[in-house]
Structure formats: structure tokens, C-alpha cells
Target: AraC family transcriptional regulator
Amino acid sequence: MPLPRSAVSAFDPDLTDRPAVARQLNFADHEAEVPMHTHRKGQLILALHGAVTCTADNEIWIVPPNCGVWIPGGVPHCARATANARLNYLFVEPGAAGLPADCCTLSVSPLIREMVDRLAREPADYPSDGHAARLARVALDELVEMPRERFNLPISSNPKIRAMADALTLAPSDRSTSAEWAKRVAMSERSLARLMIRETGLTFGRWRQQLHLVIALRELASGAAVQDVAAELGYDSVNAFITMFKKALGSTPAQYFAQRRAEKRSSPKHAPDD
Model:
């Protein structure tokens, strides 16, 4: 049985000059780790099933349901997908649309999701005056209107904060205090507190909570049970985890994902025709 190949080798978006091209990847056929790489085109990552986290621009990004992570062209990035992940990628030529110049999470309407899914079935060299070209243009026009969301964790290029992020990503149940972390990275607690604010804009407590939210969304989207996620993150009870989740996103995990499933069911069956 052949070994799975890297997703990077599956498609080179820079071989075409079309304003936008889309591709779908099933990570049952590819390695979970997507190595650091870059390309000329910007990239919107949409999760159809499962979950993926990206690292780009000194931040960790989660691709939650009904959102997409936007990575401008020329920005180095890597990713890790769950084994059941199925993703749509929309690659956008620089200057083809007024999209943000920095990485961000964009809310993505059902209409855009359907159009990107339809465009993923078109060849990369589709005729510049055909239906696919018009579809790409409408998708880009819609995309620039989408609001930003906050599903990211600032990690900074500072080696001490990077080390903390790496450690807590591997062991998110670690409940060490800021004083204990300060000792680990050979700083005073006050100096670490100032460094966190300067580099991430968050206190240590808020930063770790955001990391927990990023991990929770990834695991819940891949099908993990709420009880298992709460335990993985080191919460004393499921209720404590649900309280954190609701405070951050305005709904419980069950409500959050039920709403996303309802929005998906109500999405149009087909993209706009000629």
C-alpha cells in the first residue's frame, strides 16, 4: 500500500494565472502534516469535514465550521489536519480581489461555500470568458464582503512564547501557573506578564484560554465528544468547559455545532448558473 503523499505536492496553484482556482483535498489520501511552504497566490482554507489548524504569520489558526482562514500570497504557512478532514482550498491571484493583506479568519456564507465547491470541479486552466470565470468573479466579490472572526492564537516569534505555545499545544491539560511558566523560561513572573502583553496583546490567562478554544473547536469539529475534549484540556468538569466555551462564543458546543449544521442544510443546492 503506497504511503500518503504531502498535500503540497497535490497541486501547484501558481501554475495558472486565473484570478481564482479551487481544489478539494481529502486527508485520508494525504499526510496529516502539511510542511511549511509558500506560493504566489493567496489561499482561503475551508473545512467541509473534520478539522485543520494552520500556523502562519506567528499565529495558530483554527478553521471552524462556516469560516475560512485567509492566508495572503507570499506568507509561509504550514498545517495539521485530522485524519477525517476534507478541505476546499480557494487560491486567489494577487490583486484579483480586495482581500486582507494579513492573515485572518473570515466568516463564509453558504453561498460562497457552494461556489468554491463548484469551482473545485473546474480545471485550473478554465476558459477566461466562460462560466467558471464568471463563477470565480462572483465568489471573490462575495468574499471581500465577509466579516472577520477571531479563531486564532497569537504566538509571536519570541522564542520563549513560542516554546510555551509548543508545550501547551502538545499538553493542553497542563495547568501550570504563570509563575511556574516564568521559572521554566527563566524569567520573573512580572517580566513574563509584560512580554505576553507586548507580544500577543493578551494576558497569560486569556492567551491560554484562547489556545483551549482553538484546540476545542478543532477536536469537536473532528467528532470528539465534549467530555473527551474537556478532559484533554484539563477542566475539572464538563460544565466548567461548557461555561468557558459559551462565554467565548455565545453558545454551548452542542448549540454551536447544531447551528452550523442547520446553516449547511439551508445552503443553496447549486451555485449560480449562467
